Amino acid sequence: MSLVYIFAASTMEGEPIEKMVVPSDSNSPSRCGTNDVVLITGGMGPRGAKSKAEIALSVSSIRPATGKPDAILVIGLCGGLTESLPEGRIVSYTECGSTEATKPMLHCSQGITNSVVTLLASSGILCDRAVGITSPRIATTRDERLALARFGATVVDMESYSILELAAIAGVPCAVLRVVADSIDRVLPNLNRALNDAGALDGRKALKVALGSPLRTAKLLAANRRAMQRLTKALEIVLKAPCFA
Q: Is the pTM value of this prediction over 0.90?
């Protein structure tokens, strides 16, 4: 049995975990199949994700002797940077880079990634190995996604690199399992105008952006819901299996 910390940037992305775990008392992790899991939500954007990871990987009341889990799994939505990754495709990162030029590429746990991809394939779910990149901004157009693809990435998100970075410092194996919510050709409302100084969405500003682009916002929300349904099916398989030993 493994203790797995699961990071999700939003309540929506963490909701599938809350629904599938067996709750426990406040001093113990929840149970999901063969694993104990702790869900950590919030922390949108690189800075928010780093802050959440710093707190989570300090001395823990769950395991005070070591202060760290056996493994970390980052989950949620991502954007596709190549036409070969359509919306709804599950991806497991092999490595992840940052838009900060001085930061090196970070590798995900090869053992966990291989286990996840193989397990999902045996269950009839296609899961592509992908190279991720973490950006402080939302890629809203094809041109912006192509610019990110020049870093060698095939998908983009806003949190994975920060968590991988802290996991490496703590010596905890880390994997990333995401789903492509918006393809390379989908044009999104410009939610960058709604990001606050910490890189997270400001609710009031986001509402203003949504009202200014109602059709694109509706299509985005629908695509996100469809993508999360696909990711939920994958998580139900992965989290109940001994992929993290």
A: yes
- The helix-helix angle for 214-238 and 11-20 (nearest 10°) equals 30
User: Helix or strand or coil: residue 113?
Assistant: helix
d(CA 193, CA 164): 27
Q: What tokens does 196 get?
A: 């606050």
| Amino acid at site 134 | T
Measured CA to CA, the distance from residue 119 to residue 241 in angstroms comes to 9
Average pLDDT, the chain: 92
Is-contact 21 37, C-beta < 8 A?
Answer: yes
Task: Give domain 2-238's CATH architecture.
Answer: 3-Layer(aba) Sandwich (3.40)
pLDDT at 59: 40
Structure tokens at 89: 């495709």
- pLDDT score, position 67: 57
pLDDT digits (tens, 9 = 90+) for 93-118: 999 999 998 999 999 999 999 999 99
Q: What tokens appear for 150 in the block?
A: 């020049």
Q: How many CB atoms lie within 10 A of CB 18?
A: 13
How large a percentage of the chain has pLDDT more than 70? 95
CA distance 205 to 94: 35
Q: How many CB atoms are located within 10 Å of the residue 21 CB? A: 20
Task: Indicate the burial class of 74 (C-beta count within 10 angstroms; 0-12, 13-18, 19 or more).
Answer: buried
- Residue pair 78/91 in contact (Cβ under 8 Å)? The answer is yes
- Residue 56 and residue 59: Cα distance in Å, rounded? 8
- pLDDT confidence band for 138 (50 / 70 / 90): very high
